[in-house]
Structures are given as C-alpha cells and as structure tokens.
Amino acid sequence: MANVDDTKPSRNTQPPRPKTASVSSDEPRALEALSKQIEVLLHASEAPLTANDLKKYLSLSTKELQDALALLQERLNHSVLKLHKTAGGYRLQIADSYSHLIQRVFPQRQERLSQALLETLSVIAYKQPVTRSDIEHVRGVTLSSNILRQLFDKGWIIEKGHKDTLGRPALLHTTAQFLDAFGLTNLGELPPMPDIDAIQAMS
Fold it and tell me: 153, 155, 190, 200: which is closest to 173 by C-alpha?
C-alpha cells in the first residue's frame, strides 16, 4: 500500500514579505555635490546667474535647485562669502562685516561716486519715470550732461518712452544692472528716500 502524505500546510505559513525600499544614502551626497557645482558656477561667472540659468546648466528641477541653494546657504553661514540674490540672479559676495578691511587694504577698489551723481541717481530711482527737467526741479540745479552720460555708461539708467508735453522729453528709468550694483532684488527694497536738501547741506 502506497504511503499517503497527509501532512497539511501550516496555517501560520505566510508569503514572503516584499523588501522595503530604504532611503538612499547617496541622496544627501548628491545634493551636496549639486550645491558645490552651483558654488563653482557662481564663482566663475562675472554676472549673477538666474534660477533658470542654474537649472539649465545643471539639468535641475525647481525643487532640486531650491534644496541645493538652501544647502549652499547653510554651508556659507560659516564662510566669509554669502549667497546673495539680486534682480539679475544669484551671486556670491563678501560678507558686509569685512567691507572695512577691504576698504583699508584696497582703497583703490572703492569707486568714488560724486554727490551730484548720487543725487541724480536717487531722484531717478525714487521718482521714475522722470525727465531731465524733473531732476533739475527736485535738485534745484542744472543737470550736467556728463552725469547722465556716466549713468548711461554704467548701464544704470535707460530712456524708455517720452513725456506727453512740449518737446516730448525722454523718460528715464533705472535698470536691472542698477539693482545688481546696489544689491537689490527690486525697487521695493530701496530705503526711504533721502532728503536732498539735507544731503546738499552736508556736502
């Protein structure tokens, strides 16, 4: 008589559990590498780089870029450099606390802007769009063509449109280069408008 195997499978037998995916330990290292690549590009670039520039150069998503920038900013908290965003994009700059050292050791690097140029630029920045006669009315003096030429040469102002009055004078506006030069993202970050009379009295 043939032996019959009458053993029944145990009810406690369970199918094998699927392996759970563990968080990759390479992810933080990959983010760190991206933050360093961004830092390299900002060091090498002569002009600020926009978010779109960085995403294009490094093939990043918006989320990846934000995470990498946050990590870069965190790392630079212990550095003499700071990650700064202006109207033109992101750039690296020396922390403000070291500006006095730079001025003392390298005074030739400090560009001297005349009082008249600063007053003219202030009127344009705060009152734009303005005409040449508008600037002269605010400052109370005739505007030198040389001052306007300097501002145009620096790329800080442009002519855009004309005022609908006699002679249709050109309207002056500040540019993104002006914002970059003064470390601003937009015109809303300008401090309260200076008192021109007070500035002139001190000059």
Answer: 155
CA 29/CA 32 separation, integer angstroms: 5
Tens of pLDDT along 17-58?
434 333 334 676 788 999 999 999 999 998 889 999 999 999
Residues 6 or more apart from 32 whose CB is under 8 A from it?
71
Using DSSP, state whether 190 is helix, strand or coil. Answer: coil
**Cα torsion through 197, 199, 200, 203, rounded to 10:** 160
Whole-structure pTM value: 0.58
Q: For residues 172 and 124, is the Cβ–Cβ distance under 8 A?
A: yes
Q: Which pLDDT value is given to residue 19?
A: 40
Contacts of 85 (CB under 8 A, 6+ apart): 185
Q: What amino acid is encoded at 179 in this protein?
A: L
Using left for φ > 0, alpha for ψ between -120 and 50, and beta otherwise, residue 152 falls in alpha
Residue listed under structure tokens 């002519």: 159
DSSP conformational letter for 113:
P
φ, ψ for residue 88, nearest 5 deg: -85, -5
- pLDDT by residue (tens digit) across 87-128? 889 999 888 888 788 778 877 666 678 889 999 999 999 999
